[in-house]
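Subgroup meeting minutes
Present: P.N., E.W., G.H.
Scribe: E.W.

1. P.N. recapped why we're keeping a running log of single-chain structure predictions: easier to compare across weeks, and new members can see raw inputs and outputs side by side.
2. G.H. added today's entry (389 aa).
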Amino acid sequence: MSEAGASRLTAVLRGDDERVTPLELFFDLVFVLAITQCTALMAHEHSWAGIAKGLLVLGILWWAWVGYAWLTSTVDPEEGTVRLVIFGATAALLVTALCVPTAFGESAGIFAGAYAILRYAQVWLLLLAARDDPGLRHSSLGLAVSTTIGCGLIGAAALANGWFQGSLWALALLLDMGGPLLIDTEGWRLVPHHFAERHGLIVLIALGESVVAIGAGAGRHVDAGVVGAAVVGIVVVSALWWLYFDVVALVAARRLVNAAAGGERNRIARDSFSYLHLPMVAGIVLVALGIKGTLADTGAELHDTAAVALLGGAALYLLAHVAFRWRNVHRFSWQRLIAAALCGALVPAALAVPALVALGMLAAVLAVVVAYEFVRFAELRARLRAQLH
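Output recorded in log:
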């Protein structure tokens, strides 16, 4: 390759630009389809195996999305070469999303190939950006190793079936997500406000999937039961939004900004955002699955998988918040822990009452938590919002 050609293959470090660019939002919109497909996979099978498959696919795709959140907080996504590669990665993400419903069957090979393209595009761009940055280059090479292991296992799973195939997927997710625990964190770069906002937007996208589930569950026939379930469903989704965006997101962003640049900030970003946002998103997706089951027949009792998804998903979301708060400010959220335990305890009752009543029970639990924290953290909320202004 000529020197002039090589000079065009560059990736420019982002600098201090805190805005989330339209290109990043475009990439995230394709990720919406991936989330929707995971919910569809779980809803189609109506089994514990289906839920396990959906969560495995969600975890694998989440880790790919996380890679691009780090990438675009490191390099300028609007630079020519990076923009073109991200467009290509977006196409690969779209193909993987289309394969989700049959990722454990006839589309397993296509999924594995598209996923590998998606992951290696990120590694390549990081290595381009790291030409003059030894620390970033060292971290990127470590990422390349964990990416190779994860993609290799997904490829091997395409040749397997049954429990062995699922085990390969689980191992791929475990080893791929475990890689950053072994990679030196000092070399990574990120823009804290941008990084926190990007994760907040993906939570918003996941909540949007819950709204889509309301429409999908209702179908074409709208009666009093569907209207009631839609209203109560929006109460649930609004409460989930409130629990994240009212105070939690502000505190987390401030903690990331105030952390010392380098290892400390990178570890917080890894733990609080890359790791702990996965159970939040997974919890929202499970709640969406439960809402979809509720809308299918509001007067009937929920199927056991739908009831566990509805209340267990909310419990998972709340527990992730408990861990999130502890990791950021080393304070325990007893009210959210109690609410999570209550959600779990209500599962047997949800199996014995009409679906609409079960949804109403969840809405009541979440509403009580929101009301308590609205009063309890009024001063903190006012102070944080004043600082933002």
